[in-house]
Amino acid sequence: MSPKSNPFLRGYRNLSIDRSVCITYEDDCPPIWRPLHPSQAHLPDDQVALFPCVFSNDFALITEGQDIPNDLEAQSQTEGVVRTVVYAVSGGDFGQPVHVGDTYSAEAAREVVRRLSFETGFYSRCWEISSTHLTPEAGRFLAELADIATPSGFLFVAFRIPYSPAIGVKLIATPWTDANLQHVEGISTNQLRQEHRAKGMPESLVEVLHLAALADVRMLVFDADARILQGLTVFGDE
Predict the structure, then answer these.
(1) Under DSSP, is residue 234 helix (H, G, I), strand (E, B) or coil?
(2) What whole-number distance in Å separates Cα of residue 115 and Cα of residue 37?
(3) What span, in angstroms and rounded, lies between the C-alpha atoms of 123 and 115?
(4) How far apart are CA 4 and CA 86, in angstroms?
(5) How many helices, marked H, and strands, marked E, lie in the chain?
(6) How does residue 124 score in pLDDT terms, banded at 50, 70 and 90?
(7) DSSP at 31
(8) C-alpha to C-alpha distance for 85 and 78, rounded to whole angstroms
(9) pTM for the complete prediction?
């Protein structure tokens, strides 16, 4: 199954912040955006915004109050004025880069990244979904595991929730990617999947657990009264 069809995936990955400047030049030309040259990356925003500059296809250089080496000046022949400083937040979406949005201060950009990040491990890693995403056979298999000591090679622990028919699963060593599993357990995702099947795990349970673990879910609860997760196969009525 491709990453785009994994309904457990949320948020963007590898969020980053890039500072650029919005430059106007010549009356009939639209604004353009350029990063500052690394030699001027230390300049604070108040020494950049509204200052004259020169720019090339790759970078901009503030001219007022700055010493510019001749070789860099030769590469930047077009003159303009920096109208504002922009902090662009970018991320990865299923392996593809995506522009999330622009802010106008480093502090605001960091706050956007903090709110969008799913890397703290304290939230957004616990899911409650309908038990109809499992076949009756898979539901019985999981319930039996919850009543015994789940084999360690499964990389999850099943448990019952007191005073409830719901069954919980604590996933271990997530995310279940080839890189992480190789580092932690010395196996691939395909090997783990085959190990689960070899131990008699029904396919619907294999599929749901592997999708959840790939998305770095740590706690997964199956409850007949919980909502159906759009994108997951449903077996029987809700």
Answers:
(1) coil
(2) 29
(3) 11
(4) 30
(5) 6, 10
(6) low
(7) -
(8) 19
(9) 0.66
**d(C-alpha 218, C-alpha 220), whole Å:** 7
Taking CA atoms, 55 is separated from 20, 67, 85, 141, in Å, by: 12, 15, 15, 65
Which residue is associated with the tokens 């038990």?
A: 131
Q: Residue 60's closest CA among 86, 42, 33, 87? A: 33
**Both tokens of residue 117?**
């990040």
- Residue 236: what pLDDT? 67
As given in the structure block, the two tokens for residue 140 are: 């019985």
DSSP 38: G
| Average pLDDT for 197-213 | 96
- pLDDT of 206-232, one tens digit each? 999 999 999 889 999 999 999 999 989
Q: Is there a contact between 235 and 133 (Cβ–Cβ < 8 Å)?
A: yes
Q: How far apart are CA 225 and CA 228, in angstroms?
A: 9
Cα–chain-centroid distance for residue 157? 25
Query: Side chain identity at 150, as an amino acid letter?
Result: T
Amino acid identity at 76: S
Burial of 115 from C-beta contacts in 10 A (0-12 / 13-18 / 19+): exposed
Q: How far is it, in rounded angstroms, from Cα 233 to Cα 238?
A: 11
156: alpha, beta or left? (left if phi > 0; alpha if psi -120 to 50): beta
Q: Which residue has the tokens 């901009």?
A: 60
Q: Token digits for 205? A: 């349970």
Q: How far apart are CA 22 and CA 35, in angstroms?
A: 9
Tokens linked to 180: 């992480």
Distance between alpha carbon 185 and the CA centroid of its chain, in Å? 23
